[in-house]
Every structure is written in C-alpha cells, then in structure tokens.
Amino acid sequence: MNFNFIKSRKSLAIIFSVLAVSCAKERSSTTGWNYNNPDNGGFEKVPYEEQETGPGLVLIEGGSFSMGRTETDVTYEWNNVPRRVTVSSFYLDETEVSNFSYLEYLWWTSRVFGPTFPDIYQKALPDTLVWREKLAYNEPYVEYYLRHPAYRDYPVVGINWLQANEFCAWRTDRVNEFILIREGLLDHVPNPSDQDYFSTEAYLSGKWQGQLKQKLPSFDEQNPERDVRMEDGIFLPKYRLPTEAEWEYAAYGLIGNTIGERITDRRIYPWNGHGIRNSDDKYIGQIQGNFVRGAGDMMGTAGFLNDNADVTAPVYSYWPNDYGLYNMAGNVSEWVMDVYRASTSQDADEFRPFRGNVFVTQVKDSTDGTISTNVDGPVFQKFVHKVNVPTAHGVSGETTEITDSVLTVLTKDAQNYSNAPSDGKSDIPGRVKWREVNAAISSDNLDERRNYKTSDYISYLDGDVNSSLYFQDGEEAYSEKADKLMYEYAKTSLINDKARVYKGGSWRDRAYWLNPGTRRYLDQRQATAHIGFRCAMVRVGSPVGLGK
Asked: Which residue of 165, 422, 463, 497 lies most exposed, with the fewest beta carbons within 10 A?
C-alpha cells in the first residue's frame, strides 16, 4: 500500500485552529474581506497542498504522444490510425487487479448485502467457467484459480466490463471511508448493513444515513461544526477504468525516452527495442512478458521456461516499464472505458480523447429539491439458465435480455459518464440516483448550451443519424430503416453501444498484440479467461506535483 496514503497527517482540528490564527489577517484579493473570520460569515480557506496518492496507484505524468499503430496493421482493420494527442496526468494501478483484491471485494459485498440482497453478491462473482474449452482439460482452473491461495497474486479474470466498473465504485467508497477513519472523523463499523454502509456520493450529497464520530470545526457562528465537503480536499476522486488513450500512453512509458522536450526513440512495446527479450547484460535473453512465443509454446521447455507461466503469472512478474507499471504487455488484456468504433482515433478530440460520453445529472426529490438516493434495494429478475436461441456472440437472446437488465441496472449509477440510468433507478441501497440529461426537462437547460445538446454521444460521427448511409433521406426515412444502420448488430457487425475496448496482449496472444497501439473489443456483458483490468484515478491540480 502506498506510504503517502497510510501515513498519519496532523489532526484536522489542530490544522483548523492553527489556520484560524495564522490566516486571521489573510484577506481576499477580490473583496478585501478576511478569510476564516466568523465576523465576516466564516468563508473558509482550508489548508491544502496537493492530492495524495491512493493505495496501489502510480502517478502517470501526462503529455502528448502518437496514439495508434506503430507497426504493420496485420489485421487490416485500420482501426488505430496514428494521431498526435495529449493526455492529462492521472493515476493508474501499479498492477492488474489480483484475485486476492477481488476476493476482498466479494467478502465485503457478501457481508454487507448478502443477508438481504444476495443477488448483488451473485452478480459480482467472476465467471469461472470462462476457462473451459471444448478440446482442452482446464477444469482445475475452473475450480481453483479464483480462490486457492496459490493464485491469490494472479490477475483476476472472468470479469466483464460492468463488473469491473462496480469494483471501481466499491473501491472509491472504501478508500474514502478509510480516510475519514484515519483522520479521526468516523468510527469504524465492523459490521455495516446495507442501510448504513459508507457511500462517498451519498455523503457529499447529505444523504448518507450514518453518523460521523466528530465533525470539522466551522467559522460560521450559526453552525460551529460541519461535515466534510468537496472543498476540503480530503476525499480522493473516484477510482475508474482508464480511457483507451490513458492506458496506451501509460503502457508505452515514453518518459524513459525523453531528453528535454524530445522523445528520442519510439517504442513498439513498453520497453526499448524491436524484440521481446531483455537486452540488459544481467538478464540478457529473458522473455519480458507473458505471451505465446509460437505455435503451441505457452511457456517453453522444461528446465528453462521462457516466460515461466503456463496461463497467467503473478501481477508483479517481469520488469516494470519506465512509469513503474507491471505487465502492460502480456499476462492479461485489460478493459478500458471506451466504446469501440473503428474511426475513433480520427474523430475524437486531440485533448483527452474518449468515446462513450453519456452526460448525466443527479436525480432530485420533487418535493424538497434534495438529492435522491435508493432506499428500497434491488429488484432483480429471475435468471434464465437455458440457452435455446443462439446469437452472433454466443449468448441466447433470452439470456442476453435478462443479463442486461440485471448487470446494467446494477452498475449504471457507478459510471456516471457512460452508463447512467435514464429513469433514475439505482439498485444499490444508499447510492445516489442519476439520470441522463434531457432536453424536455427545463432545469437541464440544454437549449442554452453550446457544447452539447443531448445526453448520449456514444455514436457521435460514427453510427448516429449524421453518419448513416440514409441521412440524405431525412430523419423520417432514417427511423423507418432503423434496422439498416451503419452497424447492423448481429447481422453484419458485432459493434454496438455495448462494445467496449480492451487493450494489450495476454497469456494466450502472439507478440503482435503486446503493442499498446493495438485495440480489440468485446460486448460489455461478456468475460474471458484472458481479460482483466486495473483502476485509474484523475489527477487534480498540478500535472507534476509540488515537487517540480
């Protein structure tokens, strides 16, 4: 765990009392009034240095780079045309999320929701059956890979995109809860229930049902104590999946190839050179990642295994790249936030490119205008196990419908920007409800906006009305030919708004896929034995920190 995160800070009460003295004469350069003065209403200027590093994270200093193909496009898909873009600084997990980390999440979910809402726990479980192959004996992995301690440090697999996002939401709440406990503001509750577990969003919205051990001192004479606010900088931003641009930028680790403002050498892999073996004199000739070296060669010959892994390897295996990130090439491929479109590299913005935006807003109570949270818990439909109507991606039509209704509802409120519910439903007790912005709702003020006019921009320039072959016939004709869109899902294409990008090579891929510029996609409800994930977090404030 990161030392910067676990080290104790001074008591907030002491900081605030010192602040009251030291800043008593500090005046606003705007109005001339004193800050932190009860006689002036108590407007506060709290002490703040910079964002602390959350557990497991590494700061990735941002910059510009050529995103996309760096070698021959052997698949001839033309879906990663090179383009210069800029990525802001952000944080990324040092390793892939391990089985042990995910088991911690399952344990917590079972303990909190298991007694009253067991389906929440069931939906969080990885699909261990992804290991099965028609003509291979992989049953030991089905039975042991997730839970046996021998595999605790191996990357978790069998996780779909929706489950990965829900893990990120859970991690955000647990980390911020720990910060409050560490600062002496919150009592540790050994056995939280589904009604009082800590939710960061609910707390900041004033809807959390628990109580703090103590509150922060306030300079408002009418309210001498107050809750923690966003303006205090105490809470960490949300854990989330990285965008495709962020993941690719971090994987290359070009910070190791810069002199001044010049990148001296491009990279095909997360390391220098054109090969996949280590050129360092101390380790010369050793494989630098976990992948398939050739036909039927998953790990080499006995006595000298080339990558020392038949399937996955422990998350701290091999050499980290120049950012200190492990296994950005090989081991498992990794989910990213983006929705897949072949032309995204050409269409997306040159600053922080991303496809998948669905703009949302918090649901407010119609009576008092406060933020709404869910208090009733989930209402899940019964599972349908029988597969009888195969579709293009191997799931029955009946099963697809049920799975979507369960998993999407379960995680929509966890990903505010990509999967927000349109009806304000939230099936996790205590979570804040979100809805898509709507032109028909006057309070959303979409008619006054210039930068966006609707909520869903997943298909913008690639799959929407303007990019349809039938656009010239008018929107009426377009709606009549809705089954003849650019991407005829399950007919001529497997691309739709649920197709999510995953990056990097895996233990079952050839070396070509180790190139960070390659990109593939899979339905967000699907999982495999070779796709895992790692979490990211936005960097707020200075892109380099006060040290520079």
From this structure: 422
**Residues β-bridged to residue 465:** none
Amino acid found at 449: R
Rounded distance, CA 70 to CA 72, Å? 7
Q: State whether 48 and 149 are in the same domain.
A: no
Q: Looking at the structure, do residues 30 and 71 belong to the same domain, yes or no?
A: no
pLDDT digits (tens, 9 = 90+) for 156-193: 999 999 999 999 999 999 999 999 999 999 988 888 88
In the beta sheet, which residues pair with residue 277? 287
Rounded Cα distance, 538 and 67, in Å: 20
Q: Is the dihedral of CA 444, 448, 449, 453 positive or negative?
A: positive
Q: Which amino acid is at 305?
A: L
For residues 41 and 62, membership in a common domain is answered with: no
DSSP 54-107: PTTEEEE--EEEEES--S--TT-------EEEEE--EEEESSPPBHHHHHHHHH
Domain boundaries, position 47: 4-52
Give the torsion sign (CA, 91, 95, 96, 97).
negative
Q: How far apart are CA 285 and CA 274, in angstroms?
A: 13
- Contact criterion met (CB below 8 Å) for 291 and 307: yes
